[in-house]
Amino acid sequence: MLPKSRRFKKGSSYQTVFFSIFLCLLLLAVITFLIYSNWKITQKRAELTSKIETLKKEIQILEEKNANLRAGKSQTETEDYWKGRLYEQGYVEKGEQQVVVLPPKEEETKKEEKGFWNPQDWWDWLKSKVRQ
After folding, report:
1. Taking the domains of the chain in order of start, what are their residue ranges?
2. Cα separations in angstroms, 33 against 29, 45, 69
3. What is the structure's pLDDT at 113?
4. Which of 86, 99, 121, 127 would bridge with 91, disulfide CB 3.0–4.6 Å?
């Protein structure tokens, strides 16, 4: 009988060793999976945090733009603004006269610019001689 019980214990010890190795490998796989998942979540959190900061800056810019547009809207609601715009476009009120200032004629400006050492004059003179 003793030899049978020893065999039974021997076979049982192989099973327990195999089972303990299997449990250790399974535990190692679960721990590895958890560490990998934690690493991926940390990366995603960092990405989302940077995206949140970018969106906060964009919101701030849009709020400033909105405030400027509201100020412009309130400015355009005044009568003085529209009078100024109409004057810029050339409209006048009843009883007023419109004065138009014309730029000087080109001939007057050319005469003032002409001189003995003007290279453009020499070039024009040379072209006129070649054409004849």
Report:
1. 31-86
2. 6, 18, 53
3. 58
4. 86
The answer to whether the CB of 89 falls within 8 A of the CB of 82 is no
Token digits for 92?
């006048």
List the structure tokens of 58. Answer: 């964009």
CB 121 within 8 A of CB 115: yes
Q: What is the pLDDT of residue 35?
A: 97
pLDDT, tens digit, for every residue of 91-103?
A: 777 888 877 788 8
**Which residue's structure tokens are 């399974």?**
26
Alpha helices (H) in 77-99, listed in sequence order: 79-88
Quick one: tokens of 129?
């001689």
| Integer CA distances (angstroms), 75 to 63, 64, 69, 71, in order | 18, 17, 10, 6
Q: Which residues of 57-86 are buried (b: 16+ CB within 10 A; e: fewer)?
A: eeeeeeeeeeeeeeeeeeeeeeeeeeeeee
